[in-house]
Amino acid sequence: MTAKDPALPQRAATLPPGSSRAYHTGSWRQQRPVHRRRPAPCHHTCPAGEDPQFYIQKLQEHEPEAAFRSILEANPFPAVTGRICPHPCETACNRGRFDEPIAIHAIERHLGDLAIAGRWTAELPPLEEDGPTVAIVGAGPAGLSAAWQLRRRGLRAVLYDRHPLAGGLLRTAIPLYRLPRAVLERELERLFATGIEFRGRCRLGQEIFLDDLRRTHDAVILAIGLSRPRPWSVRGAVPGDLHYGLALLEEWIDVGAAPLQGRTVVVHGGGNTAVDVARLAVRAGARAVHLVTTRALPGDPSAIGPEDVMQAFPREIEQAREEGVIVHPHTTITRLIIRGARLRAVELAAVRALAGPDGRTRRVAFEGTEQILEADMVVPATGEIVDAEGLDRLPRAGDFLASDRWGRIPGEKLLYVAGDASGRGASVSAAIGDGARVAAAVLHDLHRGLAPSPSPEPPIAYEALNLHYFDHEPRREPAILPVPERLESDREIEQGLSASEIASEAGRCFSCGNCLACDNCWTFCPDLAVLKTAEVARDGSHYVFDYDFCKGCGVCAAECPCGFIEMVPEPPPRFAAG
Amino acid sequence: MRAAFEGSQAIARAVAMCRPEVIAAYPITPQTHIVEALARLVYDGELEAEIVSVESEFSAASVVLGAAAAGARAYTASASQGILLMAEVLYNIAGMRLPLVLTCANRAVSAPINIWNDHQDAMAVRDAGWIQLFCTDNQEAVDTTVQAFRITQRTEIPVMVCVDGFILTHLFEPIDLPSQEEVDRYLPPFTFARRLDPARPLTLGALVGPGHYTEVRAELAADLEAAKAEIVAADRDWADITGRFCGGLMRAQGPHSARLGILTLGSIYGTLQEAVATRPPPEPVRLMALRCLRPFPVEALREACRGLCDLIVLERAIAPGAGGILANEVRAALYGMPDAPRVHGAVCGLGGRDVPLEILPRLIELARAAEPVWSEIVDLQATPPVPMEGRVR
Amino acid sequence: MTGTQELRRRQPRFLGLEPGHRACQGCGQALAAALVTEAAGPDVILVNATGCLEVFTTPWPQSAWRLPWIHSLFENAAAVAAGVEAALKRQGRPSKVLAFAGDGGTFDIGFRSLSGMIERHHEVLFVCFDNEAYMNTGVQRSSSTPHAAATTTSPAGRKLPGKRHLKKDLLAIVTAHHLPYAATATVAYPGDLMAKVRRGMATEGPAFLLVYSPCPLGWVHDPRDMIAVARLAVETGIFPVVEFERGELVSVLPIREKKPVVEFLRLQGRFAHLLGDDPKALEEREHLQALADANIARFGLLARGEDERDTVSAARVRRGGRIR
């Protein structure tokens, strides 16, 4: 043995393991990665404010109840909207630019149906004892949504509707082949089980009056929808037995009958009502059904813009045509040919939307393109306006009741308009979203909530994603009932997806702007400065950055598939004095 | 067991008895017989070791480096060009304080290419941080080899055992081989505290900057100094077992009254002993051989030179432009010694040139010079003229 | 920060390397070494040649290695590894020996000892981190530097535009030894790389892994593009990802969508002189494209419809990550 102990590990500059942790390479940084949640385009576009990215994430994490509850924060009837919404979320879905958008619609429906079957509910705070109450006139989607949001905050809402049952046009104007009655009833049941009250057969101006409501409740929301058809004629002429489309549709849904047997029907209009009427005419035994609209079919390149395209949902139009409805786009009715009081034929002419000298579009029927179409019934479905019975002194804005974007009626206190009656948005989801926004305004004005939030952040751009980490996979499409079976009964035309198809579809989600927990940042950091957490990190990711060692190279940000990591300049170092 | 062995064979057997675990083998004259003998032992199952026939001497040294670092007793042999080629590794091994034994079968270095004995190769790496021990005959080679394994294990300094190429390696002479039992008694099983081991991870060979490099080198230098005691102790302990002592740090013989001394390295010592015995010089001569070149035994040398007026350093190496290498080291060692002898540098036997008995009178004459001889090649011959036919135009 | 330390301790993966090492920002070699040691596990001994990895992981008094590790010289990683392997074999210790070297220590100065190690069938997994130049000494060309790339000893000069010789086909030379397993991999496909490390670890006998490791400093690219550059090298055919057993090609990673070489060149300043309109630049671009195409033809790198695993599917991620 030499004098020194040869077992010393320091001899010849031998080093113990892992001692580099003492050196904090984070001091090298000039930029640092941060997690930055951005709204996914689906969330940003949803008129009701749902966050499909979030609930799809919950599905991927095998937490369908949590997924369902997330929808419920914005929308109390996912089984309904999962059937009838035109899903702008899918149009906005970033996956659509990669291969095909996620079938968000089918996923929402699936969660709604699971919730019904499993009797899932949301946890709500108790109703405030002796708290304020809010009267809501109209138990349609906007009114129901407003009542739900108020209830979520513990406030009592009372819904009034002239109809004996709640639901508004969900019940009266949506065909059963699209929205089965049982689905609607179960979701309304769940809603009313929370303590929201409903009083049917209460018509404004007859059974109930605005002034009384304002006295007996702390706030009143008018969610009365648009229930009057826009008056229609052709150069002043109307046939004797004129039935408006909306009335026919409501009757058909209510009793299952319509006086169309054997008739050649011309439906005038291009919206959902018009298309629904045309389809019911087929089912009611019409000999032939024509749909005349001044607008173009979806996908027609000759349309000059979205305002020149039929407002009905494309899949409805497609199914109508499959069922035998003949569509005449870019056409108008120029003359009614009436013998006695009965319609014999209509004269049609080609129409185009042209940009006028003042920048506004106008529709022009072209002389010389006229043709005669034999028909014994014309059904107008060219739009609805508000029925202001009992509300004469409230200000109007064209076809609607005037209000600001939070629903407050100018010159009035604690009186609001929500939904179609306000003119804000033209779909059930828009009505749901509007009802929620108006409820937020009510909560604020009753000192139960914060000021409504400012405009949302822009959604994450497609270019911010790193798509090298995804492979093409086809979208799962639900089965559609073949035409003969559709016409036999009111069975739901569009089926849902199976649980495994839903799981595969959910697996296609890019998780735009939110952590996918894919491990890329954790794997690719050359400095081992990303740490994986067993629980979710505070910022909603599954990882934390170890700024002691992060050198700010930016690889994590570049390889994050979801655009969730951003590099921001490193703040300049602070040097202690002395 | 006393029998006639070729030097290489005896050395190989000594190595084998030390139970090496990894042997690296690369052929270069004149050490090749050593590794061949070891290979035969392994392939015949008489020696349980991994013998790695590498693709160059550089790798030979690297392989044993790795083996030692992993905690195995390792050995290799080389010479001349091989030593130069592995020079980088030799410095690396010593710097990392790895225990290793290497036999250097001293041979001249190219150019011109020459396969015969001189000490230029060992001299070229004398500052690599290895312990360098020179053997005067094959008995010493055997005994020193065994001692080398113990010295290196205790000091964690690698040991180079230098043996004159051909003159010793290819010489048949009677040698007393120790028994396995004697070696086992003397040499403990190999352990290395810093061995590479997943159970106890360490980092060997880090980058060391100006802030610490000096300290690491200073530690090696100090430990080399301290190794002198270990080298002597190893020799004494071996003598206790076998009765054979190699002189510790150096050998010396001759009367106290001698005023002339001759210091050499390696097998020349035997020649000088023979010369003194068979043709007694006119005056008494003290003969000395350095056993240990590194660490340089300053104190022992001074002690051995006490009373001398002239000291001839006879060596088989030269530093062109600076004279004899050993001579200059000796001069430095004796500098400041009271009554230090005059040192004369004599070079002979380069490239394997035979050193005859007649060298002795030549050296005695050299020492009579008025001034100390800086450096003289004492066996230089007049170059024979190149025949006309052989000249290049 | 104790919270982070505790979190680090509980990380669900084995790490052979610690942070605090001095690699440049975005270093491909640092990432590759972390991935390789993760896949190799704790029962290994590492032998590291001189080079970037060695220098930035062991600046005394700190070492970033959690595994037993030795650095000897530039050119002898394979030989030292062979010595370690011989010792372990003799002593009956089952730990696996890995040798790490850069392209310099593999293609050039380390070539000799690599060949010897393979020829003698030592059970060592030799991993070459190929960043295509002598980066540690400041970006000098090696035989691995691609044709026409600019380095300090092969600059994009007025007379000679970058390196004048082709990248040495080391894989061909190594596989000509008919060793049990040799493969190429890159950091852009970490799952593939780690699977190949495991194969190398399981190989009885020598195994060789060539890991393409981008160098932001030497290749002159934005550090954040480190993975993108490696991915493009694969997708253009510039760097084939293949496996050999006993000298025979046994698998490739097919390219789903071939990318033009110029996309790869554009990201890197070392090829900036090739992007102009002058005839010389055009010719070099064509040459590099031709080399990539030759690779694709030679190894059959274009995906056919039925390939289950290709450059797109091999990169797929999903929620929950690679380790749940």
Number of helices of chain B: 13
Total beta strands of chain A: 21
Supply the CATH superfamily name of the largest domain in chain B: Thiamin diphosphate (ThDP)-binding fold, Pyr/PP domains
Q: Compute the CA-based radius of gyration of chain A.
A: 30 Å
Judged by helices, strands and strand pairing, the structural class of chain B is: alpha/beta
Q: Just give the CATH class of the largest domain in chain A.
A: Alpha Beta
Shape of chain B: globular
C-alpha end-to-end distance of chain B: 61 Å
Main sheet overview of chain A: 5 strands, parallel
The number of helices of chain A is 19
Major sheet of chain B: 7 strands, mixed
Strand order within the widest beta sheet of chain A: 4-3-2-5-18
Task: Could you tell me the CATH topology label of the largest domain in chain A.
Answer: FAD/NAD(P)-binding domain
**Strand adjacency order, main sheet of chain B:** 3-2-4-5-7-6-13
Oligomer: heterotrimer
Please provide the ordered H/E string of secondary-structure elements of chain B. EHEHEHEHHEHEHEEHEHEEHEEHEHEHE
Mean pLDDT of chain B: 96
**Based on DSSP secondary structure assignment, what is the total number of beta strands of chain B?**
16
Query: What name goes with the CATH superfamily of the largest domain in chain A?
Result: FAD/NAD(P)-binding domain
The greatest interface between two protein chains, and residues involved on each side, is: A-C, 55 and 55 residues
Question: Would you spell out the secondary-structure blueprint of this structure?
Answer:
The complex is a heterotrimer of chains A (578), B (393) and C (324).
Chain A: E1 31-35, H1 41-45, H2 52-60, H3 64-72, H4 78-84, H5 88-92, H6 95-98, H7 104-118, E2 133-137, H8 141-152, E3 156-160, H9 169-172, H10 181-192, E4 197-199, H11 210-216, E5 219-222, E6 228-229, H12 245-255, E7 264-268, H13 272-283, E8 288-292, H14 314-322, E9 326-328, E10 331-339, E11 342-355, E12 361-365, E13 371-374, E14 377-380, E15 384-385, E16 396-397, E17 400-401, E18 415-417, H15 428-445, H16 483-488, H17 499-507, H18 520-524, E19 530-532, E20 543-545, H19 555-559, E21 565-569
Parallel strand pairs in A: 2-3, 2-5, 3-4, 5-18, 7-8, 7-14, 8-9
Antiparallel strand pairs in A: 1-21, 6-15, 10-11, 11-12, 11-13, 16-17, 19-20
Chain B: E1 2-6, H1 7-17, E2 22-25, H2 32-43, E3 50-53, H3 57-69, E4 74-78, H4 80-85, H5 87-95, E5 101-106, H6 120-124, E6 131-134, H7 138-155, E7 159-164, E8 172-176, H8 180-186, E9 203-204, H9 213-242, E10 250-253, E11 260-264, H10 268-278, E12 285-290, E13 292-294, H11 298-304, E14 310-315, H12 325-334, E15 342-347, H13 359-366, E16 376-377
Parallel strand pairs in B: 2-3, 2-4, 4-5, 5-7, 6-7, 11-12, 11-14, 14-15, 15-16
Antiparallel strand pairs in B: 1-8, 6-13, 10-12
Helix pairs in contact in B: 1-2, 1-7, 3-5, 7-9
Chain C: H1 2-9, H2 28-40, E1 44-48, H3 52-57, E2 69-71, H4 77-91, E3 96-102, H5 104-108, H6 111-119, E4 124-130, H7 170-175, E5 181-186, H8 190-202, E6 207-212, H9 216-219, H10 226-236, E7 242-245, E8 248-252, H11 261-266, H12 279-299
Parallel strand pairs in C: 1-2, 1-3, 3-4, 4-6, 5-6
Antiparallel strand pairs in C: 5-7, 7-8
